[in-house]
Design a protein that fits this description.
By secondary structure, the protein is of the alpha/beta class. The strands form four sheets. Strands 2-3-1-4-5-6 form a six-stranded mixed sheet, sandwiched between helices. Strands 8-9-7-10-11-12 form a six-stranded mixed sheet, with helices on both faces. Strands 15-16-17 form a three-stranded mixed sheet. Helix content is 30%, strand content 20%. The longest helix is centred in the middle third of the chain and has 16 residues, at 285-300. The two termini are 46 Å apart.
Length: 485
């Protein structure tokens, strides 16, 4: 077993928590998410012609006239009982308003002022926050005239924009900056280097494994799994607040929502994703967009937390998601939620691990954390497991130790015959981490059979203590100088 020592690593500051927060609110389908995407400068929030697409608050950074702000897209304001889905969505929007230094109250200029606009405008005035009135969908020559009707809401002069066509956004950004509190005096901050590439060979050449400091910045985590596995409840428990909309209804989360949290000096960027169902069951355009956002979040992550409902065991769709994690080369932590409802825990845990080891050899040794996101029991064990998985994902093995092991592996089981000739595998090196990737050089090395590659990968995993992360093994043959081809 290799001696794994956790190195000190610099953590880049995450300034977004200290930036002014601006919340976009309004009734459903007035174009809040489209406006949000325009102001942050990229398609970050899901947009569709269906009312109520946005359910959870979504944050993004926007730069306006040299000022960087936190912009929050919220769910549409609707009158509903607190225990209903729409009531929970409204409570989330109200929380964003309480934290904001400025509220953008958005209306649909084409539809005119509705009773719902009047009701929620009166509510916003009572919140004690500065409010700007934004008349969206005011494109064309008649748009500005239609926007003037919004004066009746008593929120001051409306700013006419068309988020879909990009009209009036420059004036809006100028007004937003004018309404922000004064910018604080700049402080000295840690300057990052342009590139981060640890010098592995400069470290102890006799060490079995080297765990270099990872690049500065937060550890990026994607929480993935099937619908109703408890992903959003888990994120709320980690944050200690009701940040995400939760409930018994499956598929509540539609968009990928990123939040930042701190733990023991580390910074984590955690993305809650929409539940992934079998492709055959995905028929709505909106769900296809949600799945695409989830997969994109997984590609950007360092560690994927695969959440399973422990009371249901491993479903075929769980295995498909695990295969996706392996294919994307992410580190993985298996999170068994609802553990408090499991009766025979030893048998359940073993059954899940056996199913994974049979169906997914690359997931062998994946760290497993059992907890109850609803009660919070044992959730504190998750982030340490994520740290450990991230360190393994960043692992680099010195070339000397690697080739000493390679020679011993060849002696134990010689390279096989291919077309009657034995392969001459000469040496091995690690070309990259994240995930650990190795290359074998030798005569006709590219003809190495898959079963022999699996033998070498299993040996690498066991000898250098690389559990639960994908290991890439490539081969590169030498060219015969006398060959005419």
């Amino acid at each position: 077993m290799a001696d794994r020592r956790r190195p000190m690593r610099p953590v880049a500051p995450v300034p977004s928590a200290d930036l002014p927060l601006v919340a976009i609110v309004g009734r459903p389908n007035v174009g809040k998410s489209t406006l949000f995407n325009r102001l942050v400068g990229r398609r970050q929030a899901l947009v569709a012609d269906t009312p109520g697409v946005t359910r959870d608050r979504k944050e993004g950074l926007a730069v306006m006239r040299g000022r960087t702000i936190r912009l929050v897209d919220t769910a549409g304001l609707e009158e509903a009982a607190p225990d209903t889905l729409f009531g929970r969505m409204r409570a989330s929007s109200e929380s964003a308003v309480r934290d904001a230094v400025l509220v953008l109250f958005c209306i649909d200029a084409r539809a005119g002022i509705t009773p719902a606009d009047e009701h929620f405008a009166a509510w916003v005035r009572k919140q004690g926050r500065p409010v700007m009135l934004v008349a969206n969908k005011a494109e064309g020559r008649g748009g500005a005239a239609a926007a003037m009707e919004a004066y009746s809401l008593g929120l001051g002069e409306p700013v006419a924009v068309s988020a879909e066509h990009g009209e009036g956004l420059s004036d809006l950004m100028g007004e937003i900056v004018d309404h922000l509190p004064p910018e604080p005096e700049p402080e000295d901050v840690f300057e990052e280097e342009d590139e981060f590439e640890p010098d592995v060979e400069a470290q102890d050449p006799d060490a079995e494994i080297v765990l270099p400091a990872r690049p500065p910045g937060p550890i990026r985590i994607a929480i993935v799994g099937r619908p109703n596995a408890g992903k959003s409840t888990l994120l709320n428990c980690l944050l200690g607040e009701e940040r995400m909309i939760t409930g018994p209804e499956p598929g509540l989360t539609r968009d990928s929502v990123a939040v930042t949290l701190h733990d023991e000096g580390d910074v984590f960027e955690v993305v809650d994703t929409a539940g992934l169902r079998r492709k055959a069951r995905i028929d709505e355009a909106l769900e296809k967009m949600s799945v695409s956002a989830s997969i994109e979040a997984l590609k950007m992550a360092e560690v994927a937390v695969l959440v399973l409902d422990a009371t249901l065991g491993v479903h075929e769709q769980d295995l498909q998601i695990a295969r996706l994690i392996e294919r994307e080369g992410r580190a993985c932590v298996l999170a068994l939620n609802k553990w408090d409802a499991v009766e025979d825990r030893n048998a359940t845990r073993q059954a899940i691990l056996d199913r994974l080891s049979i169906s997914l050899a690359q997931m062998r040794g994946v760290p497993v954390v059992t907890f109850s996101a609803l009660t919070g029991a044992s959730v504190q064990r998750l982030l340490p497991a994520v740290r450990e998985a991230c360190e393994v994902w960043n692992a680099r093995v010195p070339t000397g130790a690697l080739n000493r092991w390679f020679e011993a592996a060849l002696e134990r089981h010689a390279a096989p015959l291919v077309d009657g000739r034995r392969l001459k595998l000469r040496y091995m090196t690690q070309v990259k981490a994240r995930p650990p990737t190795f290359v074998i050089f030798g005569t006709r090395a590219e003809q190495t059979p898959e079963d022999y590659k699996r033998y070498l990968v299993n040996g690498l995993r066991e000898t250098f203590n690389l559990p639960g992360v994908p290991i890439r093994l490539q081969t590169r043959g030498t060219k015969n100088p006398y060959s005419k081809s």
